[in-house]
Write a structure and sequence with these properties.
This protein is mainly α and 288 residues long. The protein is 72% helix and 3% strand.
Amino acid sequence: MTSQDILNLLLIGISQGCAYGLVALGFVLIYKATEIVNFSHGEFMMLGGFVSLPLIAFFGFWPGIICAVLAMAVTGFLLDSLVMRRIIGESQASVFILTVAFGFIFRSFAGMVWGWEAIPFPDFFTGSLNVGGLTMRTNRIAIIVATVVLCVLLYAFFSRTKVGIAMQAASQNQLAAYYMSIPVKTLVSVVWALGAAVAAVAGIFNAPFTQVDTHVGGLGLKALAGAIVGGFGSIPGALLGCILIGVMEPFSDLFFPTLKGVSAYALMLVVLFVRPEGLIAQTFAKKV
């Protein structure tokens, strides 16, 4: 294997890890706000790709994508405000079953509306870029750039805006935030909307490689594994874990083909045994 082959695999791994990272962002945002692990979050990614298809055909490419992301944000908001809010205080088993059930519902809905066969997605960044003899598809560069831009925007939102700071306060102590006249219920729904929107972006940017398929939501499980590897309460940790998994996968698939598809979960198990809190632990402790 030449150095160029290694660099190509490395770039593929980083771009795939960034796609996982976008989904993991939604996992962590929702967990930090509600302590709920949304096991249907990968289906937001899948549904975002499907919803974008008719909107792109009707409005054009970029307006259609923006409308699809907004539609998924509304879906996430309504899911929390109409359903998830009603089960506050129920057992973790009930929450787990409900989120898994929503995953099946979203997948069945997509299959009934758009069919069960994979649908090609328009290649929004065609061509490739050659740098120092290394050929890089612009689609993969776009995933990396989108991840960096979204992370910067989310960091600015949570650290510089009143709404973002209020969300952080609500995630650390909802009762105290409520006594400070912060609309906790609305903010939690907004967090669900943000998580769904970011997952939709991941689904749209990943669609040229995976096509739009009802099984794409399974990538959400790898994003969950990456979030666990990096530290489930930490956004930087979740991104780091997902990039590690993304980089590891193409190399493990090449050198250890028997581990194809399961290397992410093998790494997760190793990390759970060695460092259960993840590579970057949550930076604050909740107080009661």
